[in-house]
Design brief:
single chain, alpha/beta, TIM Barrel, 10-stranded mixed sheet, 11 helices, 35% helix
Length: 310
């Protein structure tokens, strides 16, 4: 990794693991420990926010440079030259996670029991930065997490469908971000670094129904760019047939503030209205929402909510 990139990441409280990975504690982990406020994923999908380890095996490699991304950006690498060992990666990830939360141990607002649970994470969010499907040993990494009794949520932009098709084992939950209703908006908003990114995304959506795991389509919605287009999104969602659709408003935070404005952040009411219209188009039910994260949950079947525990 370029020393300047590493220095910048560490200044922003990332902890570098292996040659290409990173860990950073989630805002909601600290909120759960300090104030008992969980991430929406706790109420939607049953994880424990304070036991979730947020990491990436590809902190500086991606296939897109999305304007709305709040993370460190200016990606230029779409492959990995030095591939990290999966066992070493999870070992270093847990160690980095612990070093990041050690200071909370003596905080009077944090219960001893909950802190000890946070010290031993049981959920890995493979999503922090970059595109994790670039990591060639992703299946082995997920297998090692499973061997240790940890669930996994994998977030991908869907531009590498072959990786998902061959991934073994699959994660506990697979998120595919669909942030554009058509190729033109994808090109302008997500700025692909590979050819045929839209076609690759379509391959991924068509693949999803065959994957034996919980599937979620996330629509990251940026006002003035891709909010609306319910019919177009519904057509894409029908291809994928996901168990859940998660419309989520863009948040004006992090490095995205260099590229977006506060006016691009939708109000929660706008996300809720979008979700209702999309649900009507799809025949999905609006099951839950969290205003703080400007996010809602649409379920294919009301019975699917019975299996949102992991």
């Amino acid at each position: 990794m370029d020393p300047e990139i590493k220095k910048r990441l560490e200044k922003q409280h990332y902890r570098i693991i292996g040659e290409n990975g990173a860990v950073k504690t989630c805002h909601w982990l600290k909120e759960k420990l300090l104030r008992g406020r969980p991430c929406y994923k706790e109420s939607f999908y049953g994880i424990s926010s304070h036991r979730c380890l947020q990491m990436t095996p590809t902190v500086d490699q991606c296939t897109e440079n999305c304007l709305f991304c709040w993370r460190v950006q200016n990606f230029s690498q779409t492959h990995i030259e030095s591939v990290d060992d999966p066992v070493r990666l999870i070992d270093e990830a847990i160690d980095a996670h612990r070093r990041l939360i050690i200071g909370l141990k003596g905080d009077s607002r944090v219960s001893k029991e909950m802190w000890e649970e946070a010290w031993n994470p049981n959920q890995v969010a493979i999503s922090l930065s970059g595109e994790p499907t670039i990591y060639p040993r992703l299946g082995e990494f997920i297998a090692e997490c499973r061997r240790r009794g940890m669930t996994t949520f994998l977030v991908t932009n869907g531009t590498l469908p072959k990786v998902l098709e061959e991934l073994d084992p699959l994660p506990t939950q697979l998120y595919v971000t669909v942030a554009a209703p058509d190729p033109g908006i994808l090109r302008r908003l997500c700025i692909p670094l590979i050819p045929n990114a839209w076609e690759k995304l379509m391959e991924t959506l068509k693949l999803l129904p065959s994957l034996d795991t919980r599937t979620v389509i996330r629509h990251t919605l940026v006002k003035g760019w891709n909010l609306g287009f319910e019919r177009e999104y519904a057509a894409l969602d029908r291809l994928a047939g996901p168990m859940f659709v998660e419309p989520k408003g863009y948040m004006f935070v992090g490095a995205s503030r260099l590229r977006m404005s506060l006016a691009n952040m939708p109000f929660h009411e706008e996300i809720r209205d979008f979700s209702r219209r999309l649900g009507e188009e799809l025949g999905y039910t609006l099951m839950s929402e969290q205003e703080a994260s400007r996010v809602t949950l649409l379920a294919r079947n009301e019975g699917d909510t019975k299996i949102t525990r992991v």
